[in-house]
Amino acid sequence: MLDLAGLTAPATHFEGSARDAALTYPKNANVAAAVALAGLGFDATQARLIADPGAVGNIHDIEAEGAFGRFRFEIIGAALPGNPKSSALAAMSVLAEIRRLRAGVST
What we know:
Blueprint: E1 11-17, H1 18-24, H2 30-38, E2 46-51, E3 58-66, E4 69-77, E5 79-80, E6 83-87, H3 88-103
Antiparallel strand pairs: 1-2, 3-4, 5-6
Helix pairs in contact: 1-2
């Protein structure tokens, strides 16, 4: 456990499989779970969770390497205005999915 209030520099507080990340940090590892589902699976996908008091948002660095080559991209998510513990992107994704599901329903 980290003393988040006393943190003055970035600190890694978890490093391991996406499965362990999702089980240990279910509120913080949904991106690791999504990457695992889209890629090699929960046990072969590695995750690192870092608490950084200087971070400008919720940052996700995704890297993959294989026979295809290599890629890396970064997502910096804004917090939901009414709930800084949640991602605005997560809320927008839920709404988009509800709209998509409702579009297929006849009344």
